TrEMBL record:
Subunit structure of this chain's protein: Self-interacts. Interacts with FtsZ.
Lineage: Bacteria, Pseudomonadati, Bacteroidota, Flavobacteriia, Flavobacteriales
Record's protein name: Cell division protein FtsA
Pfam family, one: FtsA
Organism: Flavobacterium agrisoli
Subcellular location: Cell membrane
Sequence similarity: Belongs to the FtsA/MreB family.
Keyword Cell membrane: yes
Amino acid sequence: MEKDNIAVGLDIGTTKIVAMIGKKNEYGKLEILGVGKSKSLGVARGVVNNITQTIQSIQQAIQEAENNSGYKIKDVVVGIAGQHIRSIQHTDYISRNNPEEVIGENDIQLLIDQVNKLAMLPGEEIIHVLPQEFKIDGQAEIKEPIGMYGGRLESSFHVVVGQASSIRNVGRCIQSSGIELSGLTLEPLASADAVLSQEEKEAGVALIDIGGGTTDLAIFKDGIIRHTAVIPFGGNVITDDIKEGCSIIEKQAELLKVKFGSAWPGENRDNEIVSIPGLRGREPKEISLKNLSKIINARVIEIIDQVFTEIKAYGHEDTKKKLIAGIVLTGGGAQLKHIKQLVEYITGMDTRIGYPNEHLAGNSDEEISSPLYATAVGLVMNSIENSTQSAIAINAVKEKPKPYQRPVAVHQHEVSEVYMEREEVEELPRMNTVKEESTETKIRKSFFDRYVDKIKDFLDNAE
């Protein structure tokens, strides 16, 4: 009998860390088995700045997910974000020795390896090399070159670059939390997998993921990733502005933003006031909701303007690059009242809020289908692609009947017998059925396997 492929995603955000365990059901939809969430301590603007606190937060989220699901987590696919991420467009080619042979996977891999050798700025490392369109002997716009004849194979690439130290710090935190790293994915790409349909990616769409510390952008056109960017502002700067503007503590500012905040000041009347308890016996503070909305509006405009500058840099005003499907907003910041209307007003583009429920099983918890969990859902989907058994049922290890038990002290040979059984149970789920995969998935996988191995080697040698 085929074992379920249990997948685990870990979203290390600035405000929260989410561990999510899931599997595909018989209809190909994602069934969430357990979610663990903890307050993110030690992460600022998507970058780890305190290893010890981050490890504690990861362990807390992992523990909660394990308790909720009844599964023991072995490895995770983790999302990478942060202000150090940048992307470049690059074109490269190879001349094939024998044009009489058809182009195979090894030719594409050779081309990708060549791009991986690109000289980067000091301290930077290539995270993703994503082929876009291929050219064979000058014939352009080829999406699948395998099986074709040609002497010169050329491709345009979307290359995502990040700071090596930041990526290794994330690897260190995961390893120190007692789990393995099975894959790395750029967070906007994970969010895109969770909330965008294939039709939107074909038509042209900009995904804006407004997190706590960063706002991530991913632009798709003709089904291909065209541009990515990470802007170092998110929901936290809005909270900070409310805290300063209203002279209140951060906890109150966050509550005000979530419960009464709006990105559109015209919605609130002048006489709408909320009273906030004073600190240590001080008089309560009265805050006008119109003023609150003005503070939020000013900061949201700034964030959206920066994102819109990136969309313009991609060249969406060009007819061929037009984003017909407009903008999709996701992440915790997308829950802010009237943000959709404000984004439409600033950009003049159709906008919708992106919920990850398209890929989720029908019986999923309502909370999980919130924009807040888009990245985590995308990371679980990515983990499923890896076809690894990332978690095993706790009861499969604990409740396996032992050959015999005595109420006396355990002898050495019995211990080894029980240990052997545990090893067998852990090995069983690793058997996977082989299935056909697209070139892009194979390329992405082989590259990531090597990249993750590189990080593991670095961490092992650093000890």
